[in-house]
Amino acid sequence: MSEPHRIVIVGGGAGGLELATRLGDSLGASRRAAVTLVDRNETHMWKPLLHEAAAGSLDVHAHQIDFMAQAHWHHFAFRLGALEALDRARRTITIGAVVDAEGLAMLPRRELAYDTLILCVGGIANDYGTPGVREYASTLESAADAERFHRRLIAACARANAAGEAGARPDVNVVIIGAGATGVELAAQLRDTTHVLASYGLASFDARSQVKITLLEAADRILPPLPERVSTATAKILADLDVDIHVGERVTRIDCSTIATADGKLLPYDLVVWSAGVKAPDWLAGFGGLTTNRVHQVVVGDTLQSVDDPDVFALGDCAQTPWKPGVPLPPLAQAAHQQASYVARMMKRRIAGEPLTPFRYHNYGSLVSLGDASAVGNLMGGLIGGAMFVEGLIARVMYNANYTLHLAALHGWARVALGSAGRFLRERTEPRVKLH
């Protein structure tokens, strides 16, 4: 009997973990392939939830998935550590050493051989070289980032409450730079949660009037990739939530207390979040001799194979994927989901020695959650046969369905139903907002 095909997936984000699970359940369970997932973290969390975790309306730990447990249940192996090197001639990767919280060695530097390597390392915030972003701005790239911002938010509100007890009435200025989906959703969620937070005993703090939320966008409208009708409807809802929107404002510098814009404005802040763009990790630029673009994405063809090496695939935010003529596929969760499903099918063909068919992206539209206020978006493509604007309860239900589909890809529908019921009951007895 021949040795199983060695598939190594680097990155356990939405696409990577779904792919490892699908391949483990099919090729891994039947021993046609040895599937291994590599990630620098021990747990996975769906990125579109991070704005809720940052605002405090969602418990990070209740929504994290343990890679080791997922591997055990779905017939793949998990290796903890960061990708450090790629030797395409020998078809090996090097995984970095791992230390624990006390700095003690846990795992040594290791080599791992592959027959097929799939890069799913996601993206990071693109600061465009703007001075002060790395030093002063928060980003929402991980659960740790979201929890860190939430702690800062609670501390700022507590300080304002203490000042109120002493007779002052200071504002808490939260500035969000970048009015894409993450920035817009965070602004709406913050208005919801700071109002609830004040009701838990901050007697000298009026969240509605003292928490000033400002949204800055360099383009001429918020949500620039989405249809104008969606942008207009969202802006109206945010205005009703007292979110101050500034469009056509390019940030040129951030210092310890103010944000400077290209037209000379200086905006004070207590908390600042940078959500103005996405790029692949810096270390991916030219990694292993692979061709990458100016934002460090691996350039792939229509089968998601690197243009340099058919044994190396890339998907999600770390890949420049062909879409429309001259336009690459945008960094969307639904794109990573479709790519993971496609690569899972292609691995079966690859192992069988059959030619791969091209990847085709189907745009089902985009939805934006605005907390308890509403949700808006557009549905299009094969879902309804055209394009349709949606908002309110229908949009909210469909937005939540995206996460449900992700969980179903990882756990199956039976476990998702039980887990949802458990979360519903647990949330009835817990505060609406995390208080620590």
* Broad structural category: alpha/beta
Average of pLDDT? 88
CATH class of the largest domain: Alpha Beta
Q: What is the rounded Rg?
A: 23 Å
Topology, pairings included?
Layout: E1 5-10, H1 14-28, E2 33-39, E3 43-44, H2 50-55, E4 65-66, H3 67-73, E5 77-80, E6 83-87, E7 92-95, E8 98-99, E9 105-107, E10 110-113, E11 116-119, E12 124-125, H4 133-136, H5 143-165, E13 172-177, H6 181-198, H7 207-210, E14 211-217, H8 228-240, E15 243-247, E16 251-254, E17 258-261, E18 266-268, E19 271-274, E20 278-279, E21 298-299, E22 312-314, E23 319-320, E24 322-324, E25 327-328, H9 333-351, E26 365-369, E27 375-380, E28 387-391, H10 393-411, H11 413-427
Parallel strand pairs: 1-2, 1-11, 2-5, 11-22, 13-14, 13-19, 14-15, 21-23
Antiparallel strand pairs: 3-4, 6-7, 7-10, 8-9, 12-20, 16-17, 17-18, 24-25, 26-27, 27-28
Helix pairs in contact: 1-9, 10-11
Structure at a glance:
It is built from eleven helices and 28 strands. The chain has helices spanning 14-28, 50-55, 67-73, 133-136, 143-165, 181-198, 207-210, 228-240, 333-351, 393-411, 413-427, and strands at 5-10, 33-39, 43-44, 65-66, 77-80, 83-87, 92-95, 98-99, 105-107, 110-113, 116-119, 124-125, 172-177, 211-217, 243-247, 251-254, 258-261, 266-268, 271-274, 278-279, 298-299, 312-314, 319-320, 322-324, 327-328, 365-369, 375-380, 387-391.
Describe this protein with a few key phrases.
FAD/NAD(P)-binding domain; globular; 25% strand; alpha/beta; disordered C terminus; 33% helix; 11 helices; 436 residues; five-stranded parallel sheet; four-stranded parallel sheet; 3 domains
